[in-house]
Amino acid sequence: MEQPILSGIQPTGKLHIGNYLGAVSNWVKLQDQYDCFFTIVDMHSLTADYKPAEKSQQILSTVIDLLASGIDPEKSTLFIQSQLPEHAELAWYFATLTPIAFLERMTQYKDKSARQKENINAGLFIYPALQAADILLYKPYGVPVGEDQLQHLELTNDIARKFNARFGKTFELIKPLLTKTPRIMSLLDPSKKMSKSLGDQHVINMSDEVKVIEKKLSRAVTDTGKSGQMSAGTKNLFTLLENFSTPDEVSFYREAFRAGNIKYSDLKGNLAKLIAHHFAPYRKKRAELEKNPDYVMQVIATGREKARAIASQTLQEVKTKMGLVI
Ligand code: AMP
Ligand code: TRP
Question: What function is annotated for this protein (predicted)?
Fold first, then answer.
Protein backbone atom coordinates (compact mmCIF):
# COMPACT_ATOMS: atom_id res chain seq x y z
CA MET A 1 0.00 0.00 0.00
CA GLU A 2 1.21 3.52 -0.73
CA GLN A 3 2.15 5.52 2.34
CA PRO A 4 -0.78 7.43 3.79
CA ILE A 5 -1.24 10.91 5.22
CA LEU A 6 -2.34 11.55 8.78
CA SER A 7 -3.36 14.63 10.70
CA GLY A 8 -5.34 15.53 13.82
CA ILE A 9 -7.42 18.31 15.28
CA GLN A 10 -8.57 18.97 18.83
CA PRO A 11 -12.30 19.10 19.54
CA THR A 12 -12.42 22.41 21.38
CA GLY A 13 -15.19 24.33 19.62
CA LYS A 14 -15.76 25.91 16.26
CA LEU A 15 -13.25 25.75 13.42
CA HIS A 16 -11.77 29.10 12.43
CA ILE A 17 -10.26 30.29 9.16
CA GLY A 18 -6.74 29.71 10.58
CA ASN A 19 -7.53 25.99 10.96
CA TYR A 20 -8.99 26.04 7.47
CA LEU A 21 -6.21 27.90 5.63
CA GLY A 22 -3.40 26.26 7.61
CA ALA A 23 -4.64 22.67 7.65
CA VAL A 24 -8.17 21.57 6.76
CA SER A 25 -8.26 23.01 3.21
CA ASN A 26 -5.08 21.00 2.56
CA TRP A 27 -6.66 17.85 3.97
CA VAL A 28 -9.54 18.21 1.51
CA LYS A 29 -7.06 18.45 -1.39
CA LEU A 30 -4.76 15.66 -0.23
CA GLN A 31 -7.57 13.11 0.03
CA ASP A 32 -7.67 12.98 -3.77
CA GLN A 33 -4.03 11.88 -3.94
CA TYR A 34 -3.43 9.89 -0.79
CA ASP A 35 -5.00 7.44 1.56
CA CYS A 36 -5.82 9.89 4.37
CA PHE A 37 -6.44 9.45 8.10
CA PHE A 38 -7.86 12.33 10.09
CA THR A 39 -8.34 12.02 13.81
CA ILE A 40 -10.26 14.06 16.34
CA VAL A 41 -7.74 14.13 19.19
CA ASP A 42 -10.09 14.24 22.14
CA MET A 43 -7.45 12.87 24.54
CA HIS A 44 -5.16 15.79 23.72
CA SER A 45 -7.99 18.23 24.37
CA LEU A 46 -8.30 16.98 27.98
CA THR A 47 -4.97 18.62 28.81
CA ALA A 48 -6.64 22.06 28.68
CA ASP A 49 -9.40 23.24 31.04
CA TYR A 50 -12.74 21.86 29.84
CA LYS A 51 -16.27 21.05 30.91
CA PRO A 52 -17.04 17.29 30.84
CA ALA A 53 -20.69 17.99 29.99
CA GLU A 54 -19.61 19.74 26.78
CA LYS A 55 -16.91 17.40 25.54
CA SER A 56 -18.97 14.78 23.68
CA GLN A 57 -20.87 17.52 21.86
CA GLN A 58 -17.57 19.16 20.87
CA ILE A 59 -16.28 15.86 19.49
CA LEU A 60 -19.41 15.35 17.36
CA SER A 61 -19.36 18.96 16.28
CA THR A 62 -15.76 18.65 15.07
CA VAL A 63 -16.62 15.54 13.06
CA ILE A 64 -19.51 17.46 11.48
CA ASP A 65 -17.20 20.43 10.80
CA LEU A 66 -14.73 18.26 8.92
CA LEU A 67 -17.45 16.56 6.88
CA ALA A 68 -19.01 19.94 6.08
CA SER A 69 -15.58 21.28 5.05
CA GLY A 70 -15.32 18.59 2.40
CA ILE A 71 -13.65 15.62 4.08
CA ASP A 72 -15.24 12.73 2.22
CA PRO A 73 -15.56 9.49 4.21
CA GLU A 74 -15.43 7.54 0.95
CA LYS A 75 -11.89 8.84 0.45
CA SER A 76 -10.64 9.48 3.99
CA THR A 77 -10.76 7.67 7.29
CA LEU A 78 -12.19 9.92 9.97
CA PHE A 79 -11.91 8.62 13.53
CA ILE A 80 -11.90 9.53 17.21
CA GLN A 81 -8.60 9.09 19.01
CA SER A 82 -9.99 7.84 22.35
CA GLN A 83 -11.90 5.06 20.56
CA LEU A 84 -8.56 3.43 19.72
CA PRO A 85 -6.68 2.47 22.90
CA GLU A 86 -3.66 1.78 20.66
CA HIS A 87 -2.91 5.52 20.69
CA ALA A 88 -2.59 5.80 24.47
CA GLU A 89 -0.66 2.54 24.66
CA LEU A 90 1.93 3.54 22.08
CA ALA A 91 2.18 6.97 23.73
CA TRP A 92 3.32 5.23 26.91
CA TYR A 93 6.00 3.23 25.10
CA PHE A 94 7.15 6.43 23.37
CA ALA A 95 7.18 8.30 26.70
CA THR A 96 9.80 5.83 27.92
CA LEU A 97 12.01 6.84 24.97
CA THR A 98 11.51 10.60 25.17
CA PRO A 99 14.05 12.65 27.14
CA ILE A 100 12.40 15.12 29.52
CA ALA A 101 14.76 17.79 28.16
CA PHE A 102 13.14 17.44 24.71
CA LEU A 103 9.66 17.94 26.16
CA GLU A 104 10.78 20.94 28.19
CA ARG A 105 11.79 22.70 24.97
CA MET A 106 8.31 22.57 23.43
CA THR A 107 6.98 26.09 22.92
CA GLN A 108 3.36 24.92 22.96
CA TYR A 109 3.94 23.40 26.40
CA LYS A 110 5.55 26.62 27.63
CA ASP A 111 2.76 28.80 26.18
CA LYS A 112 -0.02 26.64 27.54
CA SER A 113 1.59 26.35 30.98
CA ALA A 114 1.84 30.13 31.13
CA ARG A 115 -1.84 30.42 30.18
CA GLN A 116 -3.24 27.72 32.52
CA LYS A 117 -1.07 28.18 35.62
CA GLU A 118 -3.56 26.34 37.86
CA ASN A 119 -3.60 23.30 35.60
CA ILE A 120 -0.08 22.39 34.45
CA ASN A 121 -0.83 18.69 34.29
CA ALA A 122 1.46 15.79 33.32
CA GLY A 123 -0.70 15.16 30.23
CA LEU A 124 0.19 18.61 28.93
CA PHE A 125 3.85 17.74 29.34
CA ILE A 126 3.78 14.39 27.52
CA TYR A 127 1.28 15.65 24.92
CA PRO A 128 3.92 15.37 22.11
CA ALA A 129 4.50 11.65 22.88
CA LEU A 130 0.78 11.05 22.29
CA GLN A 131 0.95 13.11 19.10
CA ALA A 132 3.93 11.02 17.93
CA ALA A 133 1.87 7.88 18.62
CA ASP A 134 -1.11 9.27 16.65
CA ILE A 135 1.20 9.79 13.72
CA LEU A 136 3.57 6.84 13.72
CA LEU A 137 0.85 4.22 14.24
CA TYR A 138 -0.15 4.86 10.62
CA LYS A 139 3.42 5.09 9.24
CA PRO A 140 2.48 8.10 7.14
CA TYR A 141 4.49 9.85 4.49
CA GLY A 142 3.41 13.32 5.53
CA VAL A 143 1.49 15.26 8.14
CA PRO A 144 -0.46 18.34 6.96
CA VAL A 145 -0.52 20.93 9.76
CA GLY A 146 -0.11 24.63 10.45
CA GLU A 147 3.29 26.11 11.27
CA ASP A 148 2.74 25.96 15.04
CA GLN A 149 2.99 22.15 14.86
CA LEU A 150 6.44 21.93 13.24
CA GLN A 151 8.23 21.49 16.53
CA HIS A 152 5.95 18.60 17.48
CA LEU A 153 6.66 16.94 14.14
CA GLU A 154 10.42 17.29 14.70
CA LEU A 155 10.00 15.61 18.06
CA THR A 156 7.99 12.85 16.37
CA ASN A 157 10.98 12.25 14.10
CA ASP A 158 13.34 12.29 17.10
CA ILE A 159 11.21 9.58 18.70
CA ALA A 160 11.13 7.59 15.45
CA ARG A 161 14.94 7.79 15.23
CA LYS A 162 15.37 6.72 18.85
CA PHE A 163 12.99 3.81 18.38
CA ASN A 164 14.75 2.66 15.21
CA ALA A 165 18.21 2.95 16.80
CA ARG A 166 17.23 0.93 19.83
CA PHE A 167 14.84 -1.68 18.41
CA GLY A 168 15.62 -1.86 14.69
CA LYS A 169 14.30 0.03 11.68
CA THR A 170 10.55 0.38 12.12
CA PHE A 171 9.51 3.95 11.26
CA GLU A 172 10.31 6.18 8.29
CA LEU A 173 10.78 9.85 9.10
CA ILE A 174 7.69 11.95 8.37
CA LYS A 175 7.41 15.18 6.38
CA PRO A 176 5.44 18.21 7.48
CA LEU A 177 3.06 19.39 4.73
CA LEU A 178 2.36 23.12 4.97
CA THR A 179 0.01 25.32 2.96
CA LYS A 180 1.01 28.69 1.48
CA THR A 181 -0.62 30.22 4.56
CA PRO A 182 0.69 28.16 7.48
CA ARG A 183 0.20 30.92 10.06
CA ILE A 184 -2.88 33.16 10.08
CA MET A 185 -2.66 35.88 12.69
CA SER A 186 -5.19 37.16 15.24
CA LEU A 187 -7.36 40.09 14.08
CA LEU A 188 -6.89 42.08 17.29
CA ASP A 189 -3.31 41.11 18.10
CA PRO A 190 -1.52 40.27 14.83
CA SER A 191 1.69 39.41 16.67
CA LYS A 192 -0.04 36.19 17.81
CA LYS A 193 -1.46 33.35 15.73
CA MET A 194 -5.21 33.27 15.31
CA SER A 195 -6.45 31.00 18.07
CA LYS A 196 -9.76 30.57 19.84
CA SER A 197 -7.94 30.63 23.16
CA LEU A 198 -7.35 34.37 22.63
CA GLY A 199 -11.11 35.02 22.52
CA ASP A 200 -13.88 35.03 19.91
CA GLN A 201 -13.13 38.54 18.64
CA HIS A 202 -9.63 37.46 17.58
CA VAL A 203 -10.90 34.80 15.17
CA ILE A 204 -13.24 34.43 12.23
CA ASN A 205 -15.12 31.17 12.53
CA MET A 206 -16.08 29.28 9.41
CA SER A 207 -19.68 29.38 10.65
CA ASP A 208 -19.77 33.16 11.22
CA GLU A 209 -22.48 35.00 9.24
CA VAL A 210 -21.52 38.05 7.19
CA LYS A 211 -22.68 40.56 9.83
CA VAL A 212 -20.51 38.91 12.48
CA ILE A 213 -17.47 38.86 10.16
CA GLU A 214 -18.04 42.54 9.24
CA LYS A 215 -18.08 43.48 12.90
CA LYS A 216 -14.96 41.47 13.75
CA LEU A 217 -13.04 42.76 10.73
CA SER A 218 -14.05 46.35 11.41
CA ARG A 219 -12.03 46.12 14.63
CA ALA A 220 -9.06 44.34 13.04
CA VAL A 221 -5.75 46.14 13.58
CA THR A 222 -4.21 47.75 10.44
CA ASP A 223 -2.02 50.84 10.00
CA THR A 224 -2.45 54.34 8.67
CA GLY A 225 -1.29 53.24 5.21
CA LYS A 226 1.02 56.25 5.07
CA SER A 227 4.41 54.93 6.18
CA GLY A 228 4.80 52.60 3.20
CA GLN A 229 5.69 49.76 5.58
CA MET A 230 3.06 47.09 5.86
CA SER A 231 2.19 46.28 9.47
CA ALA A 232 1.56 42.70 10.61
CA GLY A 233 -2.19 43.33 10.77
CA THR A 234 -2.35 44.70 7.23
CA LYS A 235 -0.23 41.82 5.94
CA ASN A 236 -2.67 39.42 7.53
CA LEU A 237 -5.62 41.12 5.81
CA PHE A 238 -3.82 40.88 2.47
CA THR A 239 -3.16 37.19 3.11
CA LEU A 240 -6.88 36.71 3.65
CA LEU A 241 -7.68 38.74 0.56
CA GLU A 242 -5.31 36.60 -1.51
CA ASN A 243 -7.15 33.50 -0.38
CA PHE A 244 -10.72 34.66 -0.76
CA SER A 245 -10.59 37.26 -3.54
CA THR A 246 -9.48 37.56 -7.19
CA PRO A 247 -5.94 38.55 -8.28
CA ASP A 248 -7.38 41.77 -9.78
CA GLU A 249 -8.90 42.84 -6.54
CA VAL A 250 -5.70 42.04 -4.64
CA SER A 251 -3.71 44.18 -7.12
CA PHE A 252 -6.21 46.99 -6.74
CA TYR A 253 -5.74 47.15 -2.98
CA ARG A 254 -1.97 46.66 -3.20
CA GLU A 255 -1.80 49.61 -5.57
CA ALA A 256 -3.94 51.69 -3.22
CA PHE A 257 -1.65 50.74 -0.33
CA ARG A 258 1.42 51.81 -2.32
CA ALA A 259 -0.25 55.09 -3.31
CA GLY A 260 -1.10 55.70 0.36
CA ASN A 261 -4.84 56.05 -0.26
CA ILE A 262 -6.08 52.63 0.74
CA LYS A 263 -9.52 52.59 2.37
CA TYR A 264 -9.40 49.85 4.97
CA SER A 265 -13.13 50.07 5.68
CA ASP A 266 -13.75 49.30 2.02
CA LEU A 267 -11.26 46.41 1.97
CA LYS A 268 -12.69 44.97 5.18
CA GLY A 269 -16.30 45.21 3.98
CA ASN A 270 -15.42 43.37 0.77
CA LEU A 271 -13.38 40.78 2.58
CA ALA A 272 -16.24 40.05 4.99
CA LYS A 273 -18.59 39.35 2.08
CA LEU A 274 -16.04 37.17 0.30
CA ILE A 275 -15.33 35.07 3.39
CA ALA A 276 -19.03 34.61 4.20
CA HIS A 277 -19.69 33.66 0.58
CA HIS A 278 -16.78 31.18 0.50
CA PHE A 279 -18.14 29.30 3.50
CA ALA A 280 -21.82 29.37 2.47
CA PRO A 281 -21.72 25.74 1.18
CA TYR A 282 -20.00 24.71 4.42
CA ARG A 283 -22.75 26.30 6.52
CA LYS A 284 -25.44 24.64 4.40
CA LYS A 285 -23.85 21.20 4.61
CA ARG A 286 -23.28 21.63 8.34
CA ALA A 287 -26.98 22.32 8.91
CA GLU A 288 -27.89 19.21 6.88
CA LEU A 289 -25.47 17.00 8.79
CA GLU A 290 -26.82 18.22 12.11
CA LYS A 291 -30.18 16.79 11.10
CA ASN A 292 -28.60 13.44 10.31
CA PRO A 293 -26.85 12.11 13.45
CA ASP A 294 -27.23 8.48 12.32
CA TYR A 295 -25.08 9.13 9.29
CA VAL A 296 -22.44 10.90 11.38
CA MET A 297 -22.32 8.01 13.88
CA GLN A 298 -21.96 5.58 11.00
CA VAL A 299 -18.97 7.53 9.63
CA ILE A 300 -17.35 7.41 13.07
CA ALA A 301 -17.94 3.65 13.46
CA THR A 302 -16.52 2.88 10.02
CA GLY A 303 -13.52 5.15 10.63
CA ARG A 304 -12.76 3.39 13.88
CA GLU A 305 -12.65 -0.04 12.25
CA LYS A 306 -10.51 1.12 9.35
CA ALA A 307 -8.04 2.91 11.62
CA ARG A 308 -7.89 0.03 14.06
CA ALA A 309 -6.88 -2.49 11.41
CA ILE A 310 -3.68 -0.52 10.85
CA ALA A 311 -3.02 0.77 14.37
CA SER A 312 -3.25 -2.69 15.92
CA GLN A 313 -0.72 -4.08 13.45
CA THR A 314 1.85 -1.35 14.18
CA LEU A 315 1.34 -1.72 17.91
CA GLN A 316 1.92 -5.46 17.70
CA GLU A 317 5.12 -4.86 15.75
CA VAL A 318 6.30 -2.33 18.36
CA LYS A 319 5.52 -4.66 21.28
CA THR A 320 7.33 -7.52 19.61
CA LYS A 321 10.42 -5.40 18.98
CA MET A 322 10.40 -4.03 22.53
CA GLY A 323 10.32 -7.55 23.95
CA LEU A 324 6.79 -7.50 25.33
CA VAL A 325 5.34 -10.43 23.43
CA ILE A 326 5.71 -13.67 25.40
P1 AMP B 1 -5.92 22.82 16.70
O2 AMP B 1 -7.25 23.50 16.67
O3 AMP B 1 -4.93 23.48 17.60
O4 AMP B 1 -6.04 21.34 16.94
O5 AMP B 1 -5.30 22.97 15.22
C6 AMP B 1 -5.73 22.22 14.12
C7 AMP B 1 -4.85 22.52 12.92
O8 AMP B 1 -4.99 23.88 12.52
C9 AMP B 1 -3.35 22.32 13.18
O10 AMP B 1 -2.75 21.73 12.06
C11 AMP B 1 -2.84 23.71 13.40
O12 AMP B 1 -1.47 23.85 13.06
C13 AMP B 1 -3.71 24.51 12.44
N14 AMP B 1 -3.86 25.92 12.87
C15 AMP B 1 -4.39 26.35 14.05
N16 AMP B 1 -4.35 27.70 14.13
C17 AMP B 1 -3.77 28.14 12.98
C18 AMP B 1 -3.43 29.44 12.45
N19 AMP B 1 -3.70 30.56 13.14
N20 AMP B 1 -2.86 29.51 11.23
C21 AMP B 1 -2.60 28.38 10.52
N22 AMP B 1 -2.88 27.13 10.96
C23 AMP B 1 -3.45 27.00 12.17
N1 TRP C 1 -1.21 19.09 18.44
C2 TRP C 1 -2.06 19.29 17.30
C3 TRP C 1 -2.69 20.70 17.39
O4 TRP C 1 -2.76 21.28 18.43
C5 TRP C 1 -3.17 18.26 17.22
C6 TRP C 1 -2.66 16.87 16.94
C7 TRP C 1 -2.68 15.80 17.80
C8 TRP C 1 -2.10 16.40 15.73
N9 TRP C 1 -2.22 14.70 17.20
C10 TRP C 1 -1.83 15.02 15.92
C11 TRP C 1 -1.79 17.01 14.51
C12 TRP C 1 -1.26 14.24 14.92
C13 TRP C 1 -1.21 16.23 13.52
C14 TRP C 1 -0.95 14.85 13.71
O15 TRP C 1 -3.13 21.19 16.40
Answer: Catalyzes the attachment of tryptophan to tRNA(Trp).
